[in-house]
Each structure stands twice: as C-alpha cells, then as structure tokens.
Amino acid sequence: MKAVAYYRVSTAAQGRSGLGLEAQRRAVTELCATRGLSLIAEFTEVESGKNNDRPQLSEALRRATLAGAVLVVAKLDRLSRNAAFTLSLRDSGVDFICADNPEVNRLTIGVLAVINEDARERISENTKAALAAAKARGTRLGNPNGAAALRRAGKGNSASLVARKRAADARCAALAKDIALLRAEGAESLRDLARGLNGLGIEAPRGGAWHPVGVQRLLQRIAALSG
C-alpha cells in the first residue's frame, strides 16, 4: 500500500526552522513502517489551521488519488482544527490515517470537524440553515450510493457511460501536469514518461504499471481535451 504524507505548520518561521516538521515526519515515518506503507510523496503547508486555502493539501490529495494511495498526517489537529479542511478530505474520497489517532477515518472525521469548529466558532446554527436552504432548493441529501442512486443508474447505461468518460477526462487532465513536469525534467520518449509516472507511484487507468502504449493513449487524450 502506498502513502502520501501531508505536514502543516502555522508560521513561516516554523517552516524555515523545521520546528514541528521533524516531529511530524518522525510520526509519519514510524506509522508507515508499522503499517507496511510505502511513502511515495510528501507535501508541506505553511498555513494557519483557520485558513481554507490549502494548495499543498490539494496537491497531496491529487497525488494520492492518482496513485491509489492513503494520505497520512501526524496529528489529528492537522485535520480537525478547521471543518472545511477535514470535509475536503472526506469529499475527496481519499482514505487517510492520523498517526496520533489511527481509528479516525474519512467516514468519521466530518463529524469531529463540525463538532470542533462549532465549539470554537459557534457555527451550528449556520450549518443547519445552509442544509435547510439546500433541501428547500430540492438538493437531494444523504448517501449518494443509496437506493435512489441505484434506481437512477437503472434507467439506462448512457448516464453511466457519460459519468465514466467525465471521470477519465478529469484524470487525464490531472495527469497532464505530471507529464509536463516529467518533460521539463528531460523525459522525452514514451518509455521515459512511463518510467517517470511509475516512479511517482501513479497507477495506469486499469491499475498496475505504465507502459509506452498506455502513455501514448494518455497523450492522445490530453491533446484531444486541450484541442
């Protein structure tokens, strides 16, 4: 199983000095060793826990999604201090592990996030109002994988095909960034690009390693999307 690490410190001074980062790296490294996880990438954010703008988090989630990896953080407070932060993890579909509380997962972290932020900023009434407004607009709430979703899927295969195509296009668009980076580092041939994608821990569309023919199809699809 592959893992992507995410670290966060609150100030630029902490980022420059490494204060707090070494402890986080040590906790993540020990957890990966205990769980038999292979750490393929690390991302560090220098940002307050109250700020929702997390470009490094977005990149960590993107890499974890493409590689089929689990996101690993050192401490639960890297996740639960801000509800938007933790809910973005839940909605991304990426599984994660907190070294200081391994029992927390993306199915339970949303509850903890809302509770913690409510205690700090008293936002419970705003949350209820937002949900009520969404329901009034006709937004369907609840489990998207429930019976209603299954009934909609049974109406025909066309919607399913469109959804799969959109997902494939989105993945190709995301991979375009990695292809550009590999080319900037000197990867020119299909074989070089395949080797680079495998080195990043990114799986091929059907799982497993990349091969030149698969990279060629990827490049053709990227070109079609950008054309």
Automatic annotation (TrEMBL):
Matching CDD domains: Ser_Recombinase (cd00338)
DNA-binding listed as a keyword: yes
InterPro entries reported in the protein's UniProt record: Resolv_N, Resolvase-like_N_sf, SSR_resolvase
Top-rank lineage group of the source organism: Bacteria
Location of the Resolvase/invertase-type recombinase catalytic domain: 2-138
Keyword Lipid biosynthesis on entry: no
Annotated signal sequence range: none
PROSITE patterns noted in UniProt: RECOMBINASES_3
Keywords linked to the UniProt accession: DNA recombination, DNA-binding
Protein name, per record: Recombinase family protein
Gene3D superfamilies, alphabetized: Resolvase, N-terminal catalytic domain (3.40.50.1390)
